Description:
Radius of gyration of chain B: 30 Å
Largest sheet of chain A: none
Strand order of the largest sheet of chain B: 7-6-24-23-22-8
Oligomer: heterodimer
CATH superfamily of chain A: TorD-like
Strand content of chain A: under 5%
Number of domains of chain A: 1
CATH topology of the domain at 200-415 and 665-697 in chain B: Dimethylsulfoxide Reductase, domain 2
Strand content of chain B: 15-25%
CATH class of the domain at 200-415 and 665-697 in chain B: Alpha Beta
Shape of chain B: globular
Radius of gyration of chain A: 18 Å
CATH superfamily of the domain at 200-415 and 665-697 in chain B: Dimethylsulfoxide Reductase, domain 2
Helix content of chain A: 55-70%
Amino acid sequence: xxxxxxxxxxxxxxxxxxxxxxxxxxxxxxxxxxxxxxxxxxxxxxxxxxxxxxxxxxxxxxxxxxxxxxxxxxxxxxxxxxxxxxxxxxxxxxxxxxxxxxxxxxxxxxxxxxxxxxxxxxxxxxxxxxxxxxxxxxxxxxxxxxxxxxxxxxxxxxxxxxxxxxxxxxxxxxxxxxxxxxxxxxxxxxxxxxxxxxxxxxxxxxxxxxxxxxxxxxxxxxxxxxxxxxxxxxxxxxxxxxxxxxxxxxxx
Amino acid sequence: xxxxxxxxxxxxxxxxxxxxxxxxxxxxxxxxxxxxxxxxxxxxxxxxxxxxxxxxxxxxxxxxxxxxxxxxxxxxxxxxxxxxxxxxxxxxxxxxxxxxxxxxxxxxxxxxxxxxxxxxxxxxxxxxxxxxxxxxxxxxxxxxxxxxxxxxxxxxxxxxxxxxxxxxxxxxxxxxxxxxxxxxxxxxxxxxxxxxxxxxxxxxxxxxxxxxxxxxxxxxxxxxxxxxxxxxxxxxxxxxxxxxxxxxxxxxxxxxxxxxxxxxxxxxxxxxxxxxxxxxxxxxxxxxxxxxxxxxxxxxxxxxxxxxxxxxxxxxxxxxxxxxxxxxxxxxxxxxxxxxxxxxxxxxxxxxxxxxxxxxxxxxxxxxxxxxxxxxxxxxxxxxxxxxxxxxxxxxxxxxxxxxxxxxxxxxxxxxxxxxxxxxxxxxxxxxxxxxxxxxxxxxxxxxxxxxxxxxxxxxxxxxxxxxxxxxxxxxxxxxxxxxxxxxxxxxxxxxxxxxxxxxxxxxxxxxxxxxxxxxxxxxxxxxxxxxxxxxxxxxxxxxxxxxxxxxxxxxxxxxxxxxxxxxxxxxxxxxxxxxxxxxxxxxxxxxxxxxxxxxxxxxxxxxxxxxxxxxxxxxxxxxxxxxxxxxxxxxxxxxxxxxxxxxxxxxxxxxxxxxxxxxxxxxxxxxxxxxxxxxxxxxxxxxxxxxxxxxxxxxxxxxxxxxxxxxxxxxxxxxxxxxxxxxxxxxxxxxxxxxxxxxxxxxxxxxxxxxxxxxxxxxxxxxxxxxxxxxxxxxxxxxxxxxxxxxxxxxxxxxxxxxxxxxxxxxxxxxxxxxxxxxxxxxxxxxxxxxxxxxxxxxxxxxxxxxxxxxxxxxxxxxxxxxxxxxxxxxxxxxxxxxxxxxxxxxx
Lengths: 252, 893
């Protein structure tokens, strides 16, 4: 039985070279290593979390990750204990699955994702911010609107044809990845004011949104996932948010 | 400190970048929208109020509205646009209505079509239903599976093998047009009143107008609790009567909040024994009545307007021994049903029975207010006739300020509807002007309609699950009919949880080849299904028109976009039609928006003369354009826009207006000119048609007059030796009431309702003490049908020997022990039908003991939305390290 999920619609930002052109990456790194590494790291890790958390597991994509052995290192400048745990879990998982994901493994991943984030019924780790931060623990709340408005201010909307809450953990990570990407691009053209604005935005989005709930959500994932892949992603999400908030000196 | 620093390698970042690239780029799930700034909402404080439907069928009605800001519902309001007065009371929302927002926006709603992991055509590990995992699928896949299963079952086994009990009139239109399905018959709430309303001449609704009612001097509240079950205007009307000086007396095993508010006396009576008590009262009046010196009985009314009370007034061709008076006095069998006899059964001292009989006989104006609850007892088939006899002989039928009012559905307010619109309290309703679609397997009844009386091809509600397991059901002629159920179709209802014997229901669901449920929530029907289809609430559809009580018409509008991938029942029905080769117009003849406009245009209000109906709304050509609908301009009382915006119309009332009503008054005044629709044309205390129905079904034999038979699982059954007072294995009775937390199964999963209202097992200290049970303990309640665990509330508010477990809580079966941790009362109730096939929920016998196993999680914890974990489960040191500002950590590193 095929698995449906929301269509992956890439955002074509016109600055594809950031992701697509490795020489560009190297050049930038030469100029301001620490600075660029931080945003590149945030961009790719959050970008990966977006894909891994927003939709059902994508077998081909996961096989690509295994092939590239990406979990051998986590490209964030300073590694927190959460990230160490994440790397251990994810690389351990990757070692076991190094020959590619077979049917049984894929079904386990699919079932784990379904049970954690899809339902039906009770969810061990509901992937929507308002469930964690709203007093009524419901979806489609003021928090959801606030997140939607953050996206709108950066010219983004949900790609889904259905009415889904904007505050899905995967979408929030995708947004953070986007802001990191914009920061690098602004830095490339030495637009100081824009960089400042973007850093301010990242600090704001982290403190108003992700930092308020992602750590608790990640704990629920880590405590309830049955596969090391999603357990590892829970730790990765937690570590990424903590790392970013440390970098931006942010508190919830 | 365990913080470490690593240098990111070039190869690492490039591999990660490649992974993101392969995911389609940054921002998966988002897309660019150049006009985004224009989509920014106006922000907080700039929302608007929209009339919001509340359709769960508690039988009452409140007016709700939702405050919507930037597309989200941020708070709830109620009917506050008019000044509140007795003449025009506000139709205020209850706690349940106010929780709609949290309920409908709960994270536990069904979001996507799901298929059970191990399902395959033919069943696929059917025993895993309720335990299996789920796989998300697309709507196309889900509808293909459903259509293929319908085709397969129809072609292999025939339409009869599709059991679709009370699925509402939308999906059923598709199934009806596809050759039909096996439906159910029987009422749920009304107990044995249902056939009585049809056959005895005592119809429904049966209340006097509220302006008449508040002048009543004495109210006998008999087994009813509208404060909890039907919050809203019923209790308000009683309160007005109390302010006018009325006296209230309660008859009930439980001193409930309605009685706390109103009553001066409480007469505790055991469940299922009301009929014995009434017979004892009738006996008292018969022996004490003297037309000259002590007139207690309204012989004039009995003689003119009823049949069956005494030997001289039995119907022609009836056995003259079949009269109530001879039965009560014991003239034929030497056994008088006197107060002493009644007392032993019902538990009330004989003096109190006599006192109550004299009280209501001597008082000129009495309202006996009761409910379906007393009649939801096994073998209570003739209880309504006993009530009728009591009310008739005490002179309280068909007279101003006197009445026998049964059920608080539609309020304590009788008479012709002063506003006319759809009575749409049920979850699914369809196009009113559309050609009806009939179910060819159910004697061409409306497909999916509420089939009340025995109907060929339909299964009695008690037997819905038994018939699956046993392969047969009781036919209308009393003979068993073979039935091979291969598929169960659930829509909008809650059969597993809300019909007797939930464990049997689960077993039945694990037997068939396919189960599908379309619902908003993962209710027990859905849990034990193979395929679940998420449906929208009425808040996500193009509105709804319905009556409030007698005097209010409501128009609710769309509140929000559909939740996640939910689709409405109409859309599902249409898609099903396409796959089954049926014209989709059968399900959706015109768009719902047009349908609602039609209903608004058709809405009528009563003129001041009390006779002429006139249109409610004025519609202009401009309105038709603006609403983008077809129609004709018309003249009414208010503009269509005003109605749409306000959402509620109250018809103005005042004392002495032309809308007053006294039930059965015309009949009392001149029974010959105004005959009732009975065999005799009179009120039938002797009701042959009712007896025929029961006796033909054959579960029991009854006489055509109201007699008391010890009910199955009644008080007498709590004894192993009744005569000598030796208690048996299940020595306590269980009373099954409506709780404030929910309306049947609705609202039960709303966390806020679980926080506000407990769902406890309730028992008297006299029963608790010898069992070493105290308030707050966890207890195991068991019957011959199942076991339930609950927290106990020990209180003298329930009479000794009687315990209470409210209905509607969701079963939460521990598969290892077979114990229900959710407190579902139907786990304790057997599904054996008695009499006319009503459900005897208030005749259940149980035993209770202190629970010594694992602690029961609180209902708030088990609500289907996760409670927040207060602290992340990390070690303190780690937390501190993580929270240190980056500069300090760099120094550490």
